[in-house]
Design brief:
Number of domains: 1
Strand order of the largest sheet: 5-2-1-7-8
Largest sheet: 5 strands, antiparallel
CATH class: Alpha Beta
CATH topology: minor pseudopilin epsh fold
Strand content: 25-35%
Structural class: alpha+beta
Number of helices: 1
Length: 179
């Protein structure tokens, strides 16, 4: 009887590599749109959380410094922005690019901008909300709507006590009650 010795194969063949590469390409192609959806939803969630935080900041700053603090929203075709400032209504303005300016004696406290690059938009049913320094109440109350290009919408509702809550207006957003 003769025994033949088999050669041990080291590494992988070109055919095996091409098959693995093909399978990975198909999986990435299938998963990419889903990843984009998750990314847009997460951006919306983060932006709405930051807006709620800034509403609380406006309220607590008004009480702390003993002055009225305003939350002002501006929406244009090029984008939208909001800012927190002291002083009278309309004394500050912002652009979707993120630049803001105030006339004396107003002071800018915070600004946030949303343009086409972020894929988010902000709209409000009021132009400006004033947080009073005595009790932190707000006049007028307002609803701020954050939305994505896909149509997902979160609303941040500010009540008379200056407290904000979020609710789902449209889209498949988990973890939020319906409006």
């Amino acid at each position: 009887m003769t025994f033949t010795r088999r050669r041990c194969q080291r590494g992988i063949t070109l055919v095996e590599s091409a098959m693995v590469l093909g399978i990975v390409a198909v999986m990435v192609g299938v998963g990419a749109p889903s990843f984009d959806q998750v990314r847009a939803t997460r951006l919306l969630d983060v932006a709405a959380a930051q807006l709620r935080t800034d509403v609380q900041l406006a309220r607590s700053t008004a009480v702390a410094i003993g002055q009225t603090v305003r939350l002002q929203v501006q929406s244009e075709a090029a984008g939208s922005c909001y800012l927190l400032h002291t002083g009278p209504a309309g004394s500050c303005s912002c652009t979707p690019a993120g630049t803001a300016s105030c006339a004396d004696p107003a002071q800018l406290l915070r600004t946030a901008a949303y343009g086409p690059a972020q894929g988010l938009a902000l709209k409000a049913n009021v132009g400006s909300m004033a947080f009073e320094p005595i009790q932190g109440t707000v006049t007028p109350t307002g609803t701020l709507t954050m939305s994505t290009r896909r149509g997902d919408q979160l609303k941040v509702v500010v009540n008379v006590m200056g407290r904000a809550r979020s609710c789902k207006a449209a889209g498949d957003l988990h973890g939020y009650p319906a409006c």
